[in-house]
């Protein structure tokens, strides 16, 4: 399946990349129409203009089209969930429903939606361990944590899955296997919209904030757009409103949040080129002598406009001479203490920056070797390669800025 996106088609759609003729999308639109959704603004397209006006509602998806815990409780699974103790989480309820409906195939009323969902994902939990090892810190650690979370979720849900045996001809172990849970978990993690539901006794205390929104979930992310997305209690529709203009035939984006590339890869399995939110993290190894003040100075980064204020300030504090300690508050206020302090802190920042550049180049070299030897990991390696190349651009820009700053103070 080619990844789909939504493009603006105000008036006649002449886009050659239009995908709305693809059978799966025809069926999805028919299915949505039966549930009260008829969209005149957008068409699915395959992508790498007239204008939609800022403030306009671009999609308004009726409640009937949404898949939420409410949908599940009113389904055949509702009774099993209500009886099960200790109560399962809203997340596991959604995973269970997705797996069961996918297994039902032709019998599922959700088939048109399930047919357009990705078959595989590139969130870290799906990546080969060899590829995870190539990720930069702290993403590598978070990727391992994600794997543990999903594995534990699977182990702790096995007995609940067993309670569903009467609904299936095959054994539940086959239907609800680890791969199925991983697929369902990624579907929810990468595609749900935020929708708060009131706490129900049949569920555990974890927040119930998910809704799968067919069609609306074809919208890709851009860090540079502003949208408002929320369930409208009056119209009983999930609405997305543009805050910026969108031209005809252009891909329409929403913003998943102010996420850097590490977060995008962790949560959604992709990397955004030229992401203004991105920075390269200084690892604990580089910052070992920063540990003392690490609690106050978290998220030390290099960005496209050089080392972050926090990183430089932390370094300036560390570089205070014994005769300068009493000025630490001035450093926090952004004052220059001495030329020596400025020069030493910039030198250390440059050393860390170069060390990160070297590490990134080394990993890029490893990736190019692995691409030749491990053809089956080609896609996963390409993903990490983009992330590392973006990091390299940021670091090289930072190095240049540091060089100019250093020249200015010496
Ligand atoms: C809500 S879906 C968006 C629709 C998706 N393109 C599809 O084919 O179904 C979210 C997923 O789309 C992809 N995606 C979203 N924004 C992207 C972007 N700017 N660049 C690349 N992939 C993106 C990621 O795989 C992400 O997990």
Topology of this structure?
Elements: E1 5-8, H1 23-34, E2 42-45, E3 57-62, H2 69-73, H3 78-83, H4 90-104, H5 111-114, H6 129-132, H7 139-162, H8 172-175, H9 178-191, E4 192-194, E5 210-212, E6 220-221, E7 227-232, E8 237-242, E9 253-254, H10 261-268, E10 280-281, E11 301-303, E12 306-307, H11 309-318, H12 328-332, H13 339-373, H14 378-409
Parallel strand pairs: 6-9
Antiparallel strand pairs: 1-2, 3-8, 4-5, 7-8, 10-11, 11-12
Helix pairs in contact: 4-9, 11-13, 13-14
The structure holds S-adenosylmethionine.
Keywords: Methyltransferase, S-adenosyl-L-methionine, Transferase
GO molecular function, one term: protein-lysine N-methyltransferase activity
InterPro entries: Rubisco_LSMT_subst-bd, Rubisco_LSMT_subst-bd_sf, SET_dom, SET_dom_sf, SET_MeTrfase, SETD3_SETD6_MTase, SETD4_SET
Which characteristics define this entry?
single chain, 410 residues, mainly alpha, set domain protein methyltransferase, domain 1, three-stranded antiparallel β-sheet, 14 helices, binds S-adenosylmethionine
Could you please describe the fold and organization of this structure?
The protein has 410 residues and is mainly alpha-helical. Among the domains are: 69-212, set domain protein methyltransferase, domain 1 (Alpha-Beta Complex); 280-409, no CATH class. Helix content is 43%, strand content 10%. The chain has helices at 23-34, 69-73, 78-83, 90-104, 111-114, 129-132, 139-162, 172-175, 178-191, 261-268, 309-318, 328-332, 339-373, 378-409, and strands at 5-8, 42-45, 57-62, 192-194, 210-212, 220-221, 227-232, 237-242, 253-254, 280-281, 301-303, 306-307. A three-stranded antiparallel beta sheet has the order 3-8-7, with no helix packed on it. It has a three-stranded antiparallel beta sheet with strand order 10-11-12. Helix 4 crosses helix 9. It is elongated, with a radius of gyration of 25 Å. Residues 11-16 have low confidence and may be disordered. Residues 3-5, 118, 190-191, 217-221, 268-270, 272 line the site of S-adenosylmethionine. Residues 24-257 form the SET domain. This is SET domain-containing protein.
């Amino acid at each position: 399946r080619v990844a789909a996106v939504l493009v603006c088609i105000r008036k006649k759609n002449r886009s050659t990349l239009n995908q709305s003729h693809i059978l799966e999308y025809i069926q999805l639109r028919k299915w949505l129409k039966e549930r009260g959704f008829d969209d005149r603004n957008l068409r699915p397209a395959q992508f790498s203009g007239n204008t939609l006006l800022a403030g306009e509602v671009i999609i308004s998806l009726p409640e009937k089209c949404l898949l939420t815990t409410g949908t599940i409780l009113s389904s055949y699974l509702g009774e099993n969930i209500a009886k099960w103790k200790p109560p399962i989480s809203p997340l596991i309820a959604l995973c269970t429903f997705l797996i069961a409906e996918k297994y039902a195939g032709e019998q599922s009323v959700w088939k048109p939606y399930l047919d357009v969902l990705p078959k595989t994902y590139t969130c870290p939990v799906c990546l080969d361990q060899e590829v995870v090892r190539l990720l930069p810190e702290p993403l590598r650690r978070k990727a391992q944590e994600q794997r543990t979370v999903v594995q534990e979720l699977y182990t702790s849900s096995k007995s609940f899955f067993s309670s569903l045996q009467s609904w299936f001809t095959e054994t539940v172990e086959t239907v609800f296997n680890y791969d199925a849970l991983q697929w369902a978990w990624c579907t929810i993690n990468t595609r749900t919209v935020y929708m708060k539901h009131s706490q129900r006794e049949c569920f555990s205390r974890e927040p119930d904030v998910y809704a799968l929104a067919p069609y609306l979930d074809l919208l890709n992310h851009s860090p540079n757009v502003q949208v408002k997305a929320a369930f409208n209690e009056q119209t009983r529709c999930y609405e997305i409103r543009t805050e910026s203009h969108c031209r005809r035939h252009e891909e329409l984006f929403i913003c998943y949040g102010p996420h850097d590339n590490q977060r995008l890869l962790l949560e959604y399995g992709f990397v955004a080129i030229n992401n203004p939110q991105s920075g390269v993290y200084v690892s604990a190894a580089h910052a070992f002598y920063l540990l003392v003040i690490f609690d106050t100075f978290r998220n030390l980064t290099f960005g496209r406009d050089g080392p972050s204020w926090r990183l430089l300030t932390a370094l300036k504090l560390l570089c205070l001479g014994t005769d300068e300690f009493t000025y630490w508050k001035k450093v926090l206020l952004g004052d220059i203490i001495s030329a020596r302090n400025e020069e030493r802190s910039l030198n250390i920042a440059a050393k860390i920056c170069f060390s990160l550049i070297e590490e990134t180049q080394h990993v890029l070299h490893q990736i190019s070797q692995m691409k030749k030897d491990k053809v089956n990991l080609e896609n996963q390696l390409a993903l990490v390669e983009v992330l590392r190349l973006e990091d390299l651009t940021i670091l090289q820009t930072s190095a240049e800025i540091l060089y100019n700053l250093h020249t200015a103070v010496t």
